């Protein structure tokens, strides 16, 4: 599929990392107690949304690179904001390293992500980012409901 | 920038249209009154978030194609769910037609979007989608708070 790239692999990664930075700053804004307890309309607290994101990004990318189809588990033994932030920060360099191992020509190969989602790799990776934006947007509402100003959506680096 | 595309122009458009379809179904779920009146934490009601999206997608793409830098206006004279849905549906074929007019090789050109956001075209278009996902995620929280089940996030076509 030789063509003029509308978006290069490096730009895609930079886009993702910008979102990860914004999500990290959203997580930082939550008070400890509300991070684990506050929710609206029966939804999960933001800590659980973050654990979902953690259980998708690095493990999903690792499964993609290693072509394994291990299922995901959103239940992580992370019980404080500090632990969530530490895992977030530990995963970022792994994500960069794993992502860089996927050759351009593999982005259209199908991978059976988590043994459940058999789609082209580019499509699964877009889903990771979409899902992060979606849940972070929900975190913004939680913060507003708590009277806390969220980070600026358009600001993608510290 | 000849390379193996990780994502083609057609795939990018399909991705966007899938999101538009999900956002439309989210809009449909709102009761008329709550669409214009309900909000959480001082945020805008979902009707205003939809008007923001309407004032970005088609006008922003038109500005990009015509290389004009007319400012946006989020204030649209749309006062019912039916009017919002009608505008949404009217814009979709225009978006397809405008998007298809941008040659692959132009995606890395800078355009001063709305006279304010001078970035490569691919970056502005990614922002349109990100912003839609972000605000739709907020709409999901509004729906949950109203006791209404949102559409499935992963379902992108009717």
UniProtKB/TrEMBL annotation, chains A, B:
Q: Read off the Pfam families from this record.
A: DinB (PF05163)
InterPro entries (alphabetical): DinB, DinB/YfiT-like
| Keyword Amino-acid biosynthesis among record annotations | no
Is Coiled coil one of the keywords?
no
Q: Which keywords does the record carry?
A: Metal-binding
Please report which protein family the annotation says this sequence is part of: Belongs to the DinB family.
Q: What is this protein called?
A: DinB family protein
Task: Specify the taxonomic lineage.
Answer: Bacteria, Pseudomonadati, Bacteroidota, Sphingobacteriia, Sphingobacteriales
């Amino acid at each position: 599929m030789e063509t003029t790239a509308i978006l290069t692999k490096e730009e895609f990664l930079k886009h993702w990392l910008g979102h990860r930075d914004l999500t990290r700053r959203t997580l930082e804004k939550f008070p400890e107690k509300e991070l684990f307890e506050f929710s609206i309309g029966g939804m999960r607290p933001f800590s659980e949304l973050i654990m979902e994101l953690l259980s998708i990004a690095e493990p999903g990318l690792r499964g993609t690179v290693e072509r394994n189809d291990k299922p995901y588990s959103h239940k992580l033994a992370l019980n404080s904001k500090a632990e969530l932030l530490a895992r977030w920060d530990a995963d970022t360099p792994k994500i960069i390293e794993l992502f860089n191992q996927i050759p351009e020509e593999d982005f259209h190969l199908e991978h059976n992500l988590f043994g459940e989602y058999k789609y082209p790799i580019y499509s699964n990776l877009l889903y990771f980012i979409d899902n992060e934006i979606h849940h972070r947007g929900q975190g913004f509402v939680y913060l507003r409901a708590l009277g806390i100003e969220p980070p600026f959506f358009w600001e993608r680096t510290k």
